[in-house]
Amino acid sequence: MLEEQVRKWAVDNKSVYIATGGMLIPGLGKIGPNRVSVPEKFYKVILDYQEPELKGVGFILPNKGSKEPLQNYAVTIDKVESMTGIDFFYALPDEIEEEIELKINLSKWNFSRTKTSYKQYPKSEQPIGIVNINYASKEELMKLKGIGPVLVERIIQYRKMHGYFRSVDELIKIKGIGPKTLEKLRPYVTVINKNW
User: Fold this and answer.
1) 3-state secondary structure at position 19
2) What structural domains and CATH numbers belong to the chain?
3) How many CB atoms lie within 10 A of CB 169?
4) Tens digit of pLDDT for each residue in 43-54?
5) Which pLDDT tens digit goes with each residue over 155-165?
6) Does residue 134 contact residue 192 with C-beta atoms inside 8 Å?
7) Distance between the two ends of the chain, CA-based, in angstroms?
8) Which of 16, 71, 134, 178 could disulfide-pair with 164, CB 3.0 to 4.6 Å?
9) Model-level pTM?
10) Residues 6 or more apart from 78 whose CB is under 8 A from it?
């Protein structure tokens, strides 16, 4: 929901600066043969540096499902910086940086039209959201631009033959998905395996 919301804010505000990542701390669990750390929380900070209204907001989200509204996870950018040790927008003039990072005003951010409010859109304009290609149904895969019935069947067959996709780049192995199609799909797909 947050990824979708931020894409909308980028359009609403002409452009935004975004920093995002996992909150890595000592003692995190590891998964997979490469022993990748699994963060318990993720952060995202968003800066609108366009006049007439300079503003910023941060989010700290647990690495688990939730039905809570996004506003419940909103925090000041200063809070995210204190938890991550990262100075996100150090290049801003000091007085502007302090104003944007120490305060939060959610009324300046339009929280409409997320996955919880698809009915506001005409059907042809409904947002795609992020599709997990390891578990997506035929109907979900069909919502991806440039993916028709033939490619949907090939993706599903690939899963049956090879198991879960390990990365989005692996889509290139599907006949009919070339580099250009892959780049168009990249913002809208992910590869999460519930067993990892």
Assistant:
1) strand
2) 2-122 (3.40.570.10), 131-190 (1.10.150.320)
3) 11
4) 999 998 887 778
5) 999 999 988 88
6) yes
7) 22
8) 134
9) 0.55
10) 58, 101, 102
Q: Residue 58 carries which side chain, given as an amino acid letter?
A: G
Q: What is the DSSP string of 123-136?
A: GGG-----EETTT-
Residue 50 structure tokens = 């366009």
Distance from C-alpha of 12 to C-alpha of 75, rounded to nearest angstrom: 21
Q: Which of 67-81, 87-101, 117-131, 175-189 has the lowest mean pLDDT?
A: 117-131
Q: Determine the Cα–Cα distance for residues 114 and 82; give it in Å rounded to an integer.
A: 28
CA atoms of 179 and 177, how far apart (whole Å) = 7
Max Cα distance, the chain (Å):
57
Residue 146 and residue 129 in contact, taking contact as beta carbons nearer than 8 Å? no
- Amino acid identity, residue 93? P
- CA angle 179/176/151 to nearest 5° reads 120
Nearest in space to 150 (alpha carbons), one of 137, 166, 161, 138: 138
Quickly tell me which residue has 């997506």 as its tokens.
Answer: 136
**Residue type (1 letter), 120:** Q
Cα separation of 108 and 154, whole Å? 44
175-181 contacts, C-beta under 8 A, 24 or more apart: 176/150, 176/151, 177/151, 181/146
Beta carbons of 17 and 52 less than 8 angstroms apart: no
